[in-house]
Amino acid sequence: MKKAIQVGVWTGAVVLFALTSLPCPAKDSAVLRNGFSIRHERRQVIGTITRLYMGGDESSFVDVPTVEIDHIEELPAETPEASKDAPESAAKLQASAKKIAQPVDLNEVVNAASGTYRLDPDLVNSVIRAESGFNVHAISPKGAQGLMQLMPKTALDLGVQNAFDPQANVEGGTRYLRELLERYDFDLVKALAAYNAGPQRVEQYGGVPPYYETKAYVARIVRDFNKKKLAANAAAKTASQPASKKTTASKSSGTSSATAKAHKSVPQPQAKAGPAQPSE
Fold it and tell me: Strand locations in 2-159, DSSP E?
């Protein structure tokens, strides 16, 4: 049985925070190790956690592990008009994040959404890993939000009112992935490329667009998904063997060659991936 992934209110929060307890005279951007970044007014280190204050008062903040912060970037001074709107935007963003009041079992959330849209939960988990690293509060430099990194307009089209709500985000992201799979006749590679770069780019280039980021993204998900399937198949095969055969198999030196043969069956990123077909 898979181990449930527990996600709490601030556990693994938006990977974006500061390395010093001194106040910041102007807004800085905390860049995390996974590449995400976020603006903040000031920051404070509390033990192993860095508290990132998003507004002028102390009521709007997010706590994240200090080790997740790669570096801090000083942002240029804002115009009066921009600085006037920024606190309000930050407050709205933080308010949305704070609506997640209870820990959730992400494994159950993924299974529920996958069942609704008839997708393999391992595929959905692989997409989440590539998109946000299972970070409920992840925000990309382009503004994509939450576990499956929904852009605000896409979230709105999918009826997702709070992209930081794990259940709503995964529900919307899984639905969108299903729509893309149907759009491209269940060609997983094209669907993943469209999820990353947009359907217009896939149709413009007749497949995966020639962007390094998109190619690496598709390959990473296909590799992770295939790895899960190979592990599941190996576990099922072992479980079905009689006890005597299991003992013999564990002592056999042929395991490495069997593994090598199994890896030869892994589809290349350009191939159409059958496992994404709906399971009726």
Answer: 6-7, 28-32, 37-40, 42-46, 49-53, 61-65, 69-74, 104-105
